[in-house]
Write a structure and sequence with these properties.
Length: 97
């Protein structure tokens, strides 16, 4: 949660767009920004947790949101690799192994 003193300045208005599946993939699991294919997203889940993966704009790092399905508590992780960001988010939510 961001406190009011930490809020960012509101950006200028622009059109919203969506991430799209790569039509060349037979069974796409990753979405990409239509005008910037390096910017990707993916959502995966199991019985207990939802992970939302979002790459940096240039595709060289990841932010992952981990959400506990029962409580909706959440944690965020960041890393150069998707796996590292996911691990940080998951451990932030549930603690280390």
């Amino acid at each position: 949660m961001i406190s009011s003193g930490d809020r960012l300045a509101r950006p200028p208005r622009s059109r919203w767009t969506s991430f799209v599946a790569d039509p060349s993939e037979p069974s796409p699991r990753t979405l990409r920004e239509a005008g910037n294919p390096a910017h990707r997203s993916r959502v995966e889940h199991n019985r207990d947790t939802i992970l939302v993966h979002l790459s940096d704009e240039d595709g060289h790092g990841w932010t992952v949101l981990a959400v506990d399905r029962a409580t909706r508590r959440w944690a965020v992780g960041e890393g150069r690799r998707k796996l590292d960001a996911a691990r940080e988010a998951f451990e932030g939510l549930y603690g280390g192994a």
